């Protein structure tokens, strides 16, 4: 019989939850590569986009973020050399593999972002901190990027 009042950690499943806070392109690459990797290994994956990360979910803004430590041309060159897929391909793969994307409603309110501005094809759900906590408390891996 399942414990009706499980302690924290008892309900954990093979799942990763990632807060995507930064809008930096290189950090978005990191989040998507980790999310895709988790999904490819049979785990569930949820990304909670908030603040500047949420800006990347605006229509035609996915790859418009700054690079945190090098020039865009140098970064693009390194990606090409390493044969890394584009952000568009990575996020498409993430969705096709069953990855879940949550857009932070509080951030939308604070930053004046309207649902119509966001790429609806990418977003599974709109939620606030309770939505994130629900996802995170069931996850074995939680990251803040």
Characterise the protein shown here:
This protein is α/β, with parallel strands linked by helices and 145 residues long. It has a single domain, classed as DsrEFH-like (Hypothetical Protein Ychn, Chain: A), CATH 3.40.1260.10. Helices cover 39% and strands 19% of the residues. Helix 1 links the parallel strand 1 and strand 2.
Q: How many discrete domains?
A: 1
In DSSP terms (H or I, runs of 4 or more residues), the helix count works out at 6
User: Helicity range of the residues?
Assistant: 25-40%
* Multimeric status of the protein: single chain
Quick one: overall form?
globular
Q: What is the number of E strands?
A: 5
**Spatial strand arrangement across the major sheet:** 4-3-2-1-5
Q: Please, what is the average pLDDT?
A: 92
The radius of gyration is 16 Å
Give the CA-CA distance, first to last residue.
Answer: 38 Å
Q: At the fourth CATH level, what is the homologous superfamily? A: DsrEFH-like
- Structural class call reads alpha/beta
CATH C-level class: Alpha Beta
| Weakly predicted, low-confidence segments | 1-6
Q: Give the amount of beta strand, in percent.
A: 15-25%
**Can you summarize the main beta sheet?**
5 strands, parallel
Provide the CATH topology: Hypothetical Protein Ychn, Chain: A
Task: Summarize the helices and strands and which ones pair or pack.
Layout: E1 13-20, H1 25-40, E2 44-49, H2 51-55, H3 72-81, H4 87-96, E3 100-104, H5 105-111, E4 125-127, H6 129-137, E5 139-144
Parallel strand pairs: 1-2, 1-5, 2-3, 3-4
């Amino acid at each position: 019989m399942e414990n009706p009042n499980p302690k924290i950690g008892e309900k954990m499943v093979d799942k990763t939850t990632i807060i995507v806070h930064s809008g930096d392109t290189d950090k978005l690459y990191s989040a998507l590569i980790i999310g895709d990797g988790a999904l490819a290994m049979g785990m569930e994956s949820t990304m909670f986009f908030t603040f500047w990360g949420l800006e990347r979910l605006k229509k035609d803004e996915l790859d418009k973020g700054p690079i945190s430590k090098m020039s865009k041309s140098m970064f693009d060159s390194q990606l090409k050399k390493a044969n890394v897929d584009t952000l568009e391909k990575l996020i498409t793969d993430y969705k096709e593999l069953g990855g879940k994307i949550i857009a932070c409603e509080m951030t939308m309110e604070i930053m004046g972002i309207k649902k119509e501005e966001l790429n609806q094809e990418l977003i599974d759900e709109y939620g606030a901190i309770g939505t994130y906590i629900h996802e995170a408390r069931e996850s074995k891996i939680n990251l803040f990027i």
